[in-house]
Each structure stands twice: as C-alpha cells, then as structure tokens.
Specification:
Blueprint (H helix, E strand, L loop, with lengths): L1 H18 L11 H4 L13 H4 L11 E5 L6 H7 L4 H8 L12 E5 L14 E13 L3 H4 L22 E3 L10 E4 L3 E7 L8 E5 L3 H7 L2 E9 L5
Parallel strand pairs: 1-3, 3-7, 4-6
Antiparallel strand pairs: 1-2, 3-8, 4-7, 5-6, 5-8
Keywords: Signal
Protein name: LysM domain-containing protein
Pfam families: 3D, LysM
Length: about 230
C-alpha cells in the first residue's frame, strides 16, 4: 500500500504538468489565417475540376483532293491512299470507274487509316510516291566539301540548306522546287540533288552528323507531292 501511494505521488504531478502544455502546432480554420493568395482560396464556390476550361473541339477534315496523273486508275489511287475503291467511286459520283482524265480532281475520303496529312496541312495532292528515306548533312561525309569550301552548305538550287526544309531528290521523280509532305516528318522543299539519290529515294537534310546517321534508312514511306495551289 505504501508503494502504491508513493507511485501516485510521483506520477500525479507529471500528468498535471503535461495536461497544461499547449500544443506545439495550431491549425487555423479560416483562409485569412492560411495566408493563401486569392487564386488559391479554399473558399472558392467552384472546385478545381470545375474551374478547368474545356478544350475547344478540333475540326477533323472529311476529305482531301488528288489530281489525276498519267497512268492513274481508281484502284491505284485507292491503294495509295488506303481507301476502299467503292468509297472512292461513291465520294466522286463516278459513273465509269475505268475512265479518268489527267488533271481530274478526285476527292479522297479521310478515314482513321489514311489520315496522314493533318487538318493544318495542304490537301491538294498531285502524286503519291512510296519512297526510301535517308539523311545527310553539309559536311564532307555527305557532300565531299569542307567548311572552307565556298559552296559549303549551298544546295543545287542555290539556296543554303536548312534543317526542317531542305531535301535532296531525283528531279526526274520530284521536280526541284516542289513542296512535298513526308509522312512522319512533315512539309519539305525539294532544293538539292545527290549522286546517290536516284528514283524514289529522298535525302533529308540535317545539321548534326550523329542525328543523320541515327536516322538510318526508312523504307516504304509515303510522300505526297503537293500542288502549287498549296504553296
């Protein structure tokens, strides 16, 4: 009994002392106490999700135009654009599928599989070419010219080569000065030629040699030769 009384005598003052200690942290309730800027006010009538503006709807084109070339057939055009030939006939109200005229404007319906050219890109197309892509630079490895050469970085057309614009082509396939859309790359200008660029091969100009080497060889890439109305 004596031990119990002694224990209570020791513990009771400690418990009373602890119960009187103020908490180390206090949590104010009002926004004013939090010191938050107005834009982060927690008393806003709208939730964060409600304050986010909905993005404007994006218009997706339903068709694009193709100009018939010599040797074209509806079946070839349908294959080039990955569309059903019957859809092509219906979209153009064609009475005789075996009769096309050079320069005839054909409407190409856009589907999920053939939408290579986006809404922002030109859509009047003269020719579709399946190409092999490589890359080159202005350096000695690609052109045989050193930086000290007076024509270093100058294309066959006389313009200075520019990444994001210049490509080298075979003029017999893509005339110099033409504008093309390369799937996966974008709009480019035919400004240069090369001894190894023959047929449907295209060389894409890049500034950095390592990037050009990493680009490698890309086969069966669709390239759309755009009509002058686009540029």
């Amino acid at each position: 009994m004596f031990r119990k009384i002694c224990f209570m005598a020791l513990v009771l003052p400690i418990w009373i002392s602890l119960s009187q200690v103020e908490p180390a942290y206090s949590y104010p309730v009002g926004d004013e106490d939090l010191g938050l800027p107005p834009s982060y006010s927690m008393s806003s009538s709208k939730s964060a999700a409600e304050q986010i503006e909905e993005p404007a709807p994006v218009h997706v084109p339903s068709s694009r135009q193709y100009l018939v070339n010599r040797g074209d057939t509806l079946y070839k055009i349908a294959r080039d654009f990955d569309v059903d030939v019957n859809m092509l006939i219906a979209s153009n109200d064609i009475q005789n599928p075996n009769r096309l005229t050079i320069g005839q404007n054909i409407t190409i319906p856009i589907s999920e599989t053939n939408g290579g050219i986006t809404n922002e890109q030109p859509k009047i197309i003269q020719k579709v070419i399946n190409t092999t892509l490589t890359a080159y630079t202005a350096g000695f490895e690609s052109t045989g010219k050193k930086a000290s050469h007076p024509e270093y970085g100058i294309t066959y057309s006389g313009k200075k080569a520019k990444e994001g614009r210049t490509i080298a082509v075979d003029p017999a396939v893509i005339p110099l000065g033409s504008t093309v859309f390369i799937e996966g790359i974008g709009i480019r200008k035919a400004e240069d030629i090369g001894s190894a660029i023959r047929g449907s091969r295209i060389d894409v100009f890049m500034n950095d040699l390592s990037e050009a080497q990493e680009f490698g060889v890309k086969k069966n890439v669709k390239v759309y030769l755009l009509a002058k109305e686009n540029v």
